[in-house]
Amino acid sequence: MKTLTWSELDDNARDAALARPAARADAALREGVRTIIEDVRDSGWDALCAHAERIDGTPPKRIAVALAAEDARRRLTTEQMRAMQLARANIARFHDAARPADLSIETLPGLTVRKLWRPIDSVGIYVPGGTAPLFSTLMMLAIPAKAAGVPNIAVVTPPRPDGTLDPAIAVAAELAGIDAIWSVGGAQAIAALAFGAGDIPRCAKICGPGNAWVAEAKTQVAAMAGGPAIDLPAGPSELMVIADGDASPEIVAADLLGQAEHDASAQVVLVTTDATLAKRVAALLPELAASLPRRDIALASLDNARIIIADSLAIAADIANLYAPEHLSLAISDPDALLPAIRNAGAVFAGALAAETFGDYLAGSSHVLPTDGGARAWGGVTVHTFLKAMTVQSVTPAALRKIAAPAATLARIEGLEAHARAAEARLVTQNAGATA
Ligand SMILES: NC(=O)c1ccc[n+]([C@@H]2O[C@H](COP(=O)([O-])OP(=O)(O)OC[C@H]3O[C@@H](n4cnc5c(N)ncnc54)[C@H](O)[C@@H]3O)[C@@H](O)[C@H]2O)c1
Ligand SMILES: N[C@H](CO)Cc1c[nH]c[nH+]1
Ligand SMILES: [Zn+2]
Fold first, then answer.
1. Where, in this chain's numbering, is Zn(2+) bound (predicted)?
2. Which atom of ligand 1 is nearest to the CA of 132?
C-alpha cells in the first residue's frame, strides 16, 4: 500500500495516485465479454446455456420465489428476519418519499406543459453472487423499482453449485414482491436480459452492480444497436475516507476493509491531514485483514489501496472531487462544514457514527452507486432510475393566436417550411371556425 504526500506529487503522479486498478479494464476481459454477448444475442438460449455451463458449471434455471422463500424462512433466525424487515421498511420509506410529483405549468396563458412520470415497462435486475450472495442488492434495486411501478421485473443472480437459491436472496425477493429469479450470472446474464434468451425476457433497462465482467457487459450492451439502457457504471466497490487527526484509526481501517473485502479489484483510499493517523491506519490494515474470513480478497484489494496526506481538508475535498468515489466517508469533526465542497461522490457518510455499512444495508438510500469515476456525472440508483418523464402540451385558441406566428418564424429561421405551415394551418382552421 502506497503512502503519498499530495503536495509533493506532479500532475502525472497525481493521476497515477488516483488511478483505478488496471485489472478492471483488461483488454482480454473486454474481448471475452464481447464474444459472450454476441453469441447470446445471435444464438439465444443455446449460447446462453453453453456459456453458463462453461463458466459457472450449470445452465440457467427459473426459480419460483414463493416455494424457495417458504423453505428459506425456516433457515433464517428471527434476528435475521427482523433485520431484513427493518432494511425493507427503511428502503421502501426512502424511495416512496423520493417518488417525484407530476408537474403542470402554463408557460403562457392557455399554453399548458405537463411533465408526467411513467415507469419503464421492463427492467432487468442483476444481483451479484459470485463470491457472496448480495441479497441486499436485490432489495436496493427491486424496492425502488416497485416504488416506481415497473410492471415487469426480471431478476438474475449467479447459480449456487447445488442449483438452489440462497435463502437470504429468496426471502429478500419475497419481501420486495419478486415472483421468480433466474439463476444465471456474469456477462451471459446481462446479454440474456439485453436481447432475450429462451424465457428470459428482453428488458428495456438493465440495472445492478457486479464484478468487472458484469460492469463491462452492461457498458457493451448499452452501446449496441437495439441494446437496452443501463442504470450506471457500478463495478467493483470503492471507498475514500477523508480523516482528520480526531478520527479513530481503528474505525477508519474497519471501514476501508469493509469495502476491500468485496473484490480483489475493489479500491480503498484514505486521504488525511494527519501523518500519524496515516501511519497507524497503514499498520492496522494488514493486521485487521488477517483475521477476516475473506482475507485473501481483502489483502489483494489492499494492493490497490492508497494513503494520501493532504495539507488541508479543503485540499482533501479537491482530491475527492477528482477521484469521484463510489462512497466517501467524512471521518472529521465537522463534516457539515466540508460537505458544501464535495461535488463528486456516489454517497457520503457524514461523521464518525455514519458507517458505510449502514448505507450498504439499511439506512434507506440505495447502495447501487457509480464506480470508476462515474460519480462525476451519475448519482446512485433511486426511484428515478426506474421512471421516465413524458411531457404533454395543450393549447387553447387564445394561446394559439399568440404562438403560431412566432413558431412559424422560428421554423423559417431553420429553413423548415413544413414546420412553419403546420403551425399556421391551425390558425387558418381556428379563424375559419370562428367566422363560420
Ligand atoms: N457499485 C456498486 O453499487 C456495487 C454494489 C454491490 C456490489 N458491487 C460489486 O459487485 C461485485 C460482485 O462480484 P462477484 O464476483 O462476487 O459477483 P458477480 O455476480 O458480479 O460476478 C460473478 C459472475 O462473474 C462471472 N465471471 C467471473 N469470473 C469470470 C471469468 N474469468 N470469465 C467469465 N466470467 C466470469 C461468472 O459468470 C460469475 O457468475 C464486487 O465487485 C462488488 O464490489 C458493487
Ligand atoms: N458496498 C457495496 C456497494 O459497493 C454494497 C454491499 C452489499 N453488501 C454489502 N455491501
Ligand atoms: Zn459493501
1. 259, 262, 360, 419
2. 16
**Which residue, judged by its Cα, is nearest atom 6 of ligand 2?**
360
- 218 with 308, same domain: the answer is no
Q: Which ipTM did the prediction report?
A: 0.98
Same domain membership, residue 61 and residue 178 = yes
> Of 327, 356, 367, 417, which is the active-site residue?
327
State the pTM of this model.
0.96
Q: Which residue CA neighbors atom 5 of ligand 2 most closely? A: 360
262 belongs to an annotated ligand binding site: yes
Ligand 1 geometric centre to CA of 155 (Å): 15
Sheet containing 62-64: which strands, arranged edge to edge?
Answer: 62-64, 180-183, 152-157, 122-126, 205-207, 229-230
Q: What are the pLDDT digits (tens) for 180-206?
A: 999 999 999 999 999 999 999 999 999
The DSSP 8-state label assigned to residue 98 in this structure reads T
DSSP 3-state assignment of 191? helix
**326 a catalytic residue:** yes
Question: What's the longest Cα–Cα distance across the chain?
Answer: 90
Ligand 2 center to 357 CA (angstroms): 8
Q: Which ligand is nearest to the CA of 166?
A: 1
Is residue 49 domain-resident? yes
126 is in an annotated binding site: yes
8 A C-beta contact, residue 411 and residue 420? yes
Q: Which position has the grid cell 450472495?
A: 133
Q: Are 39 and 217 in contact (CB under 8 A)?
A: no
Q: In which domain, by residue range, is 86 found?
A: 25-101+120-231
